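Translate sequence into structure tokens.
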Amino acid sequence: MLLTKRIELHLLRVGRCRHPEWVTLSGGRWAAIDFPALAALLLHPTAGPILYDTGYAERFWPATTPFPERIYRWITPVHLPEEERLATQLGRLGIALGDVRKVLISHLHADHVAGLRDLPGAGFLALRGDVLACLGRTGWQALRRGFLPALLPPDFPARLALVDERPVVDLGPSWAPFESGYDLLGDGSLVGIPLPGHSPAQLGVLLRTTDGRPVLLAADSCWSARAWREGRMPSIVARPLFADWGDYRRTLAGLRQLADRQPELAIIPSHCAETLASFDPHRPAPPEAASPGPSPPSPLSHTHSHPPGRGGIDLASIEPLGGGTPLPGGGSACGRGDGGEGPGEAASPGGPG
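Result follows.
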């Protein structure tokens, strides 16, 4: 059954920056506001500790010391106090960095993957479109995609599995326009939802918390709750930061449609301070949401399947997705990479990653 396993969810604020609100929200204030970097800890009942992204890490600074990577640091200066570091926050929960078994990577921008090298026991899952857009690129070609190669472990390809090779599951029309996704663990507990636009593919994750509440970890499909609630795009000056502006617009509109169909669903953007401050994973779901999922609830429907992750990817064997390959959530698995990335501590003209 879909989302039958309950996941203990912890939202961790791992670093932050400040940007003028108007850059990230059309018609927003000129004042600078906080943009935290989210890492979500998922305590799976059988698979153990899983992370959705890592937020920032100390490695960001040496990675942005050389030129042209230093431009990234100038545009998005990062603030990471000791109490917000990933190791510190996991330690409060009795978890060591080496205990993390898997990282679900929304996309490869620095504020989402800066801590990967600190997780020696973890395998990685990412969508093909984001892998193709970034891996193998260096210098200016990497920078314009918001990608810092030095943040990835040397054995990243060997530890990487493609989400696109997981079984595809049917969510049903009540989840439109995101009517299908990927069964990330093979047990229906975590469903990967492509949310293209900000990056070529971008992985969102649908789960159900221990109190029965459905949650969509939505990465950078929107930069704030106000954006999807009010249908407000970022300022046009932020457009160069996106892989595909049209895909982003469609994904943002899709979130609003989904929220209308699933009012009990918690949509969690990765950089929304309001959402992180107000979300309570232990708040009981409304009575009508006691059994969220397709209406009526149905078993996992595998429309087709691929071999499970191989525990290693030969990057040379990944064929280019010329013209873009449709994904279950609509949109495309491939597009041009985006530039600029990561929220910065000082108010800067860029936007969050």
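Note: The chain has a mean pLDDT of 78.
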